Amino acid sequence: MLPGNFSGWLWTFTVTSANAFYLGSSSNEIYRFQGILQWCDNVYFAPNWKINIHACKTNTPANTACRAPASTEGIYFIEHLLEHMSHVLKKPSLELRQLNFYKNGDRMMGGATVKDFTLPALTDQFLQSSDYKSRSEAVATFNTANRWRKRGINVVPIRYAAHWNIPTRIFHCLVAIFHGGIEMGQGINTKIAQVVASELGVDMKYIAIQPTQAIMTANGGITGGSVTSELVSLAAIDACRQLRTLIDVVRQIDPTKTWPQLIEDCFKKEVDLSARSGINAKTPDHVAYNFYAAMCTEIELDILTGEFIINRLDILYDCGESMSPLIDVGQVEGAVVMGLGYYTSEEQIYDPKTGENLSYGTWKYKPPMAKDIPVDFRVTLLQNAPNPSGVLRSKLVGEPPLCGAASVVFALRNAIAANLNETGKGADWFTLVAPMTVERIQQYNRIEISQLR
After folding, report:
1. For residue range 337-364, what is the model confidence (pLDDT) as tens digits?
2. For residue 28, what pLDDT is reported?
3. Looking at residue 69, what is its pLDDT?
4. CB 20 within 8 A of CB 2
5. Which candidate, 41, 174, 181, 451, has a CA 20 to 30 Å from the CA of 125?
6. What are the residues facing 14 on neighbouring strands?
7. β-strand 13-23 against 4-8: which pairing, if any?
8. Are strands 13-23 and 51-56 parallel, antiparallel or unpaired?
9. Which residues of 305-331 are buried (b: 16+ CB within 10 A; e: fewer)?
10. What is the pLDDT of residue 33?
């Protein structure tokens, strides 16, 4: 939990100061510091931000960043503040969130101006499709009827900025494709193959993605920010158009020829069937566009043991016009489950005297398994929402859903609060420490022997 101080009232809130403590001692950390500032406002307008970041010296360098660094912490930071304000103001957290959404023309923390802010309409659609109102009422009824089992439900909206200030991406197209991105399971190779096949008008069987090589794709930047697939696709489109200009001259001689025959004719005429393109896509305020989503998590908790299950998880994801829907749905599912592990079970334990990692194996470190996946898992891509600022009208996917997994923490808090209210201990706000392990949850419920008699 990133500590913060705030003052608030019914309709709006003002963050007067916030202190973020981030541990690290290497150049990796600079980007995380900057990232927290870029994401800690999430989807909310506050006129008086004052963020103080404190660097701490550690005895080892930070590990390489992994999926959604800084954005995960930044979004959790503001969402936790909103939950706290909801408790103090005795207002539903969802209502408080909606009241403080950005509006078009507002200025964001990072300096960019809000435009094409579609989240209010997306949220309304999501609340209806997820049946949030009736499910919230059912949760309240269940909690009244059950002493030792409680349910919680929570909605978290997400904004993720597409930053195109990334160094040049190189695309080199022969019969094979060389690109500057790294395939790490996000489906970049599949998307590139689809884009090239579409641009050249050929079957996918003629497309071959080659391993990334610094010789063929020199001066490439990082694969990060969830935008690499887009930027490499943009370079691929440019390279394909270069090739088409050369190939079409030969095609006009006999338009009936198949692709292999056409390429053979190009070879005989000594046409250079190679193209190279570099994209250095920068925007004036470093934000090409914003992505939006909403996630709702419903859990059922065993008060006595701290064990819980996720009964249902819904997410409505604005992917623009998805370049590859199956890839994108898989990315959403994977990021959500990764986030659930991050927020509930993956606790790192260190020896307080030596600093030794005591959770180096799965006896102590618990990544999510098959039984941890939501019982009812519903991923929906927003329909009829082309992105005029994106490549092929699409939007990024990969990291943002992980940030929305914070909703599981607040759903668990709501279930714990239902128990504490029943025992007369719920008046005071209690601070959570993530990950919400079974042991921590059991302790948060503050069970006493007298309650069991």
Report:
1. 999 999 999 998 888 888 888 998 888 8
2. 56
3. 84
4. yes
5. 41
6. 7
7. antiparallel
8. parallel
9. ebebebbbbbbbbbbbbbbbeebbbbb
10. 64
What pTM does this model have? 0.86
Digit-coded pLDDT (tens) for 213-238: 777 777 777 787 788 888 888 888 98
**Is the Cβ–Cβ distance between 263 and 273 less than 8 Å?**
yes
In 3D space, the residue among 174, 202, 208 whose CA is nearest the CA of residue 189 turns out to be 208
Q: What is the 3-state secondary structure (H, E, C) of the chain?
A: CCCEEEEECCCCEEEEEEEEEEECCCCHHHHHHHHHHHHCCCCECCCCCCEEEEEECCCCCCCCCCCCCCHHHHHHHHHHHHHHHHHHHCCCHHHHHHHCECCCCCECCCCCECCCCCHHHHHHHHHHHCCHHHHHHHHHHHHHHCCCEEEEEEEEEEEEEECCCCCCEEEEECCEEEECCCCCCCCHHHHHHHHHHHHHCCCHHHCEECCCCCCCCCCCCCCCCCCHHHHHHHHHHHHHHHHHHHHHHHHCCCCCCCHHHHHHHHHHCCCCCCEEEEECCCCCCCCCEEEEEEEEEEEEEECCCCCEEEEEEEEEECCECCCCHHHHHHHHHHHHHHHHHHHHCCCCCECCCCCCECCCCCCCCCCCCHHHCCCEEEEEECCCCCCCCCHHHECCCCCHHHHHCCHHHHHHHHHHHHHHHHCCCCCCCCCCCCCCCHHHHHHHCCCCHHHHC
Which sign, positive or negative, has the C-alpha torsion 14, 17, 22, 25? positive
d(CA 36, CA 49): 13
In this predicted structure, what is the pLDDT of residue 339?
96
Residues of the chain with pLDDT under 50: 1-17, 20-25, 166-174
Cα separation of 412 and 148, whole Å? 14
Residue 327 near residue 389 (C-beta atoms within 8 A):
no
pLDDT for 382: 95
* pLDDT the model gives residue 393: 92
**Annotated catalytic residue, options 399, 422, 439, 448:** 399
Active site residue 83: no
Residue 85, classified by CB atoms within 10 Å of its CB into exposed (0-12), middle (13-18) or buried (19+), is buried
The whole-angstrom separation of Cα 451 and Cα 107 is 51
Angle at 246 between CA 245 and CA 251, to 5 degrees: 95
